[in-house]
Write a structure and sequence with these properties.
The structure is a single chain. The chain has helices at about 5-10, 25-35, 55-65, 90-100, 120-140, and strands at about 15, 35-40, 50, 105-110, 110-115. By secondary structure, the protein is of the alpha+beta class. It has a single domain, classed as CBS-domain. Helix 4 crosses helix 5. The two termini are about 25 Å apart.
Length: about 140
């Protein structure tokens, strides 16, 4: 299965936040949308960074509650690893595991078209394995 196929199963567009937004607003967005990370983008197409719950926890530990009035661009992860829609699910999972992160923005021709979480990848992989198992059982039973 490819990232493109995975994205077809997801609803809605990509949620982004502007680099100048406050971290207070970012936390509200993550909470309201029930997501673990948000792509930081000034124009909604280019990836300027990514802000995850982990980024917020580390920054809160260092700066305390004064952090809430700072801007997203101050603590976001700037060097974002991305993937292409043609990338295989197994490659996505390997990339996330190796990099120790749980969200991967998807770019096509330099434009943001989606984001894949480790939860999306696991759900898709389990569905894929279930389908293969069903096909093998049908083959063996018909055999």
């Amino acid at each position: 299965m490819t990232v493109r196929a995975m994205l077809k199963g997801k609803s809605g567009g990509v949620i982004t936040i502007r680099p100048e937004s406050s971290l207070r607003d970012a936390i509200a967005l993550l909470s309201q949308r029930r997501i673990g990370a948000v792509v930081v983008s000034g124009d909604g197409e280019k990836v300027d960074g990514i802000l995850s719950e982990r980024d917020l926890v580390h920054a809160m530990h260092s700066h305390g509650t004064s952090l809430l009035d700072r801007q997203v661009k101050e603590i976001m992860t700037k060097d974002v690893i991305t993937c292409a829609p043609e990338m295989a699910l197994t490659q996505v999972m390997e990339t996330m595991t190796r990099g120790r992160f749980r969200h991967l923005p998807v770019l096509e021709n330099g434009k943001l078209i989606g984001i894949v979480s480790i939860g999306d990848a696991v759900k898709s992989r389990l569905s894929e394995l279930e389908s293969e198992t069903t096909q093998l059982r049908a083959y063996i039973a018909g055999g």
